[in-house]
Amino acid sequence: MLLKNRLKCLANPDLAHVIELQDIFQSMILRGAQPRELAGYLDSLDHRGRLACTRSLGAAHLRKLYDLVEGFRIITIDDLVPKSAGARNPVRHYGKNSLPAFTIFEKRFLRPEKDAQELWGYNHQALAPVTGNGYFIAVNAPDRPEVDIDYHRVPSEWPAGWPEPRSNERGISTLVYAYMIDKLRGVTEYVSIGRAWKKGKVQSAWFILCKE
After folding, report:
1. Cα-based distances in Å from 91 to 38, 47, 108, 119, 212
2. Which of 4, 7, 159, 209 has its CA 20 to 30 A from that of 74?
3. Is pTM, for the whole model, over 0.85?
4. How far apart are CA 156 and CA 40, in angstroms?
5. Tens-place pLDDT, residues 133-168
6. Is the Cβ–Cβ distance between 89 and 113 less than 8 Å?
7. Which range marks the domain in which residue 24 is found?
8. Which residue from 197, 199, 195, 211 is spatially nearest to 119, judged by alpha carbons?
9. Could you give the CA distance from residue 78 to residue 142 in angstroms, rounded to a whole number?
10. Pair 42, 188: CB distance under 8 Å
11. What angle do CA 73, 185, 91 make, to 5 degrees?
12. Are residues 85 and 160 in the same domain?
């Protein structure tokens, strides 16, 4: 498999460049680089490069990165959806989680009103027909410079083109989203990383987001 990947890289210089970017970022995390160094590296890349790096991370990288950036950067709902985006204009965050399968997803956020103190959103992912869309309401955490993504609360309305919200405490959704809060930390202006809590207990479940 390794030889096969090397041959692909030789045939495709663009692919080789992307793999090099991913390897550098993964190595920085594993050696415990300072958050400012990690953020500087991501900021030096364009969206395509940042997305390639963030979606290349495995569970071990996500776990370590989440710990490394604790308290590094203040993140608020205004970072997830800038006020300049206006009301009811969705902003996509491309995600990768630490699950063993179906790791690629998106969180889509919007500001329900111009001066709203919360965001509405849902998880856009391949298993949604089975698990539900995992609607949530995101707010600034009251006790730390982070954002809480709260699955206990579901928006009462939704914009055209979004699936209809349903409770996360019914059907298979209960196993995935019920009683959960994702605690989101800032890495850069465009990248954030979170960890799930259920019923007040921390879970071995991490994810990273890269804003469009």
Report:
1. 24, 14, 6, 11, 7
2. 159
3. yes
4. 39
5. 899 999 999 999 999 999 999 998 888 889 988 888
6. no
7. 2-68
8. 211
9. 15
10. yes
11. 100
12. yes
